[in-house]
Target: HTH tetR-type domain-containing protein
Amino acid sequence: MTVDAVTNPRPERMDAARNRMKILAAAADIVAARGVEGLAMAEVAAAAGVGVGTLYRRFGDRSGLAYALIDEREREFQAAFIEGPPPLGPGADAPARIRAFLHALVDRTVEQLDLLLMAETASPLARFGGAYDAYHAHLSLLVTRARPGADAPVLADALLAPLAAPLLAHRLRGSRPVTPERVKAALDDLLATFRA
Model:
């Protein structure tokens, strides 16, 4: 997924920043109540108390608004694993940080599953770049610390693969659904090799 345009925004005027927060809060409420399918630009504008033109100028279209919703949560998540408290943030050993990261990523993905599903399936390689690159670099570093000499980049991909939004949606909502806790337990089984 590419969030580059949203991750490095230009400085905002105070009124524009207020409007942005109102718009994102209204959009998040609509998605929470009706799902991604209910995300209509006119409804978001009305709920936020701004003109529809403001919404289109700011976000372009519905997918731009969805990416902004993803980006808000993504910033919080990345701050947590880069500089937050241990074990997700620095201060714990590498295996504990890998486990905390993967568990937090399950929660983060489940929290915005429909938005991430839309974003990750927008094109064949939509999942890669942006946030995925940050996750991959982080996990590669931790894997290198936990298992010196291991092929850290390939192991990082292997650890991230089961958390792709389409696969996670299939597992959570399929004919034989699993719970997020079961996904975490399976990841813990995989991670047992890092402690060996």
Q: What stands out?
A: The radius of gyration is 18 Å. Residues 121 and 171 are 16 Å apart (CA to CA).
